[in-house]
Design brief:
By secondary structure, the protein is mostly helical. Helix content is 30%, strand content 7%. It has a two-stranded parallel ribbon with strand order 1-2. Helix 2 links the parallel strand 1 and strand 2. It is globular, with a radius of gyration of 18 Å.
Length: 89
């Protein structure tokens, strides 16, 4: 087998959807759901080999779990992010 044959990229089977932000004055009208749905359709159209899409949201973003659920996303793990303030080192 030639070296170039071994370096072929693997097919994409998953991708991440992120940042469906809506300006506060326009929240509550279904815009985030529309944006997330359009992004998922576009991702599937542009990359038909993708069989799963991952998304996330902060715990303090109360409406987004319901939006994700209505679009078919299901919880599969919980994570926490930590930040160290650089001025306290």
């Amino acid at each position: 087998m030639s070296p170039s044959a071994r370096l072929q990229p693997l097919p994409r089977v998953s991708d991440t959807e992120a940042a469906a932000a809506v300006v506060p004055a326009h929240r509550g009208h279904g815009l985030a759901m529309w944006v997330k749905a359009a992004k998922a359709r576009r991702l599937r159209a542009d990359h038909p080999g993708v069989v799963e899409i991952e998304t996330d949201n902060a715990e303090d973003t109360v409406p987004m779990p319901a939006v994700n659920h209505r679009l078919g996303f299901r919880p599969y793990r919980r994570t926490r992010a930590f930040q160290l303030d650089g001025s306290t080192t």
